[in-house]
């Protein structure tokens, strides 16, 4: 599948999508920048040629997907001859830019998302998932982004970081999330991927960075939760955790939803490999406890605890649960494994290793990776 497979009908569908969304939202949704030299001219309108071709690839037939800006080159040797071969006209150079500026209101592009804004959007995505633009938290984030003193120029103030824009950014992160079931939007821009890579495996660092941004203080130097292996002594004081618990309710519900989804996906993966998959029940003090998953294959014998996020709090809880369950096995101790939606931070991997607990996590390609566990990539 390549550019040569794109049809005229697919290009027309891409242009219709652009007309429906508006130029700014269309480019943001699919992760393309505005054209500089080559514009597709059709029915008196001008379109960003590379973006149209990339999106048209996804309309070209079953099994085709939209191409990202990084997957193909634009210009005189690729996009322009392709569109001309399909019977379209190309406006080149300054004329195209001038006519877009005069005829297309959407050409008033707001500034790209700054790192601080992306940090706050990723915090919302990892805590509540891909919420819609009517969700109170999407609305609240939109209001906060409009108050931040980051961008002094906002050409399209009415649409600057509105709830719909927040929703599109969450969808960009969903496209980067290996645990998200669905396509999401395009993978967005380079900064989206950089913020995802930096923080998706260390939600503690993400929360710290987001809190510092909201407080208006420098956040970059404090972004990483990993620190030197030191300790000190301090006094024991009273702790009121009620406020913390209330704040964690929504996050916990979303994490539990992801956790259940993760378990079912990995269960299906192991079953497809011919493994004997079960769930063990433990009776103690008139209570019944269940592990998330057990690989009862004779050569494996692995006890899994799944977590829907990769925060330090979640992994510490998983380790405690695994050791609690393992004491019920007398003759043959199981291998302890934490099942995660994505790779945790390096310090958290070292923590699991020091506890003798292995890790399996979902990869961006939809597979599984982990530390020496059958069914994973290592």
Q: Please count the beta strands (DSSP E, at least 2 residues each).
A: 11
Instruction: Please report which band the strand proportion falls in: under 5%, 5-15%, 15-25%, 25-35%, 35-45% or over 45%.
Output: 5-15%
Question: What distance separates the N and C termini?
Answer: 31 Å
Going across the major beta sheet, what is the strand order? 4-7-8-9-10-11
Run of helices and strands: HHEEHHEHHHHHHHEEEEEHEHEE
Q: What name does CATH use for the topology of the largest domain?
A: Trna Endonuclease, Chain: A, domain 1
Which CATH-level-2 architecture of the largest domain?
Answer: 3-Layer(aba) Sandwich
Major sheet summary line = 6 strands, mixed
Structural class: alpha+beta
Q: Helical region count? A: 13
How many domains comprise the coordinates?
3
The whole-number mean of residue pLDDT values reads: 82
Approximate helicity band = 40-55%
What's the CATH C level of the largest domain?
Answer: Alpha Beta
Point out poorly predicted stretches.
94-107, 223-227, 238-247
Radius of gyration: 25 Å
Q: Please, could you describe this protein's structure?
A:
This protein is of the alpha+beta class and 378 residues long. The chain has three domains: 3-107, no CATH class; 115-222, no CATH class; 251-370, Trna Endonuclease, Chain: A, domain 1 (3-Layer(aba) Sandwich), CATH 3.40.1350. It is built from 13 helices and eleven strands. It has a six-stranded mixed beta sheet, sandwiched between helices. The protein has a three-stranded antiparallel beta sheet with strand order 2-1-3, with helices on both faces. A hairpin with a 2-residue loop joins strand 1 and strand 2. Helix 1 (8-21) crosses helix 2, helix 1 (8-21) packs across helix 3 and helix 6 (115-128) crosses helix 9. The longest helix has 31 residues, at 242-272. The radius of gyration is 25 Å and the shape is globular. The two termini are 31 Å apart.
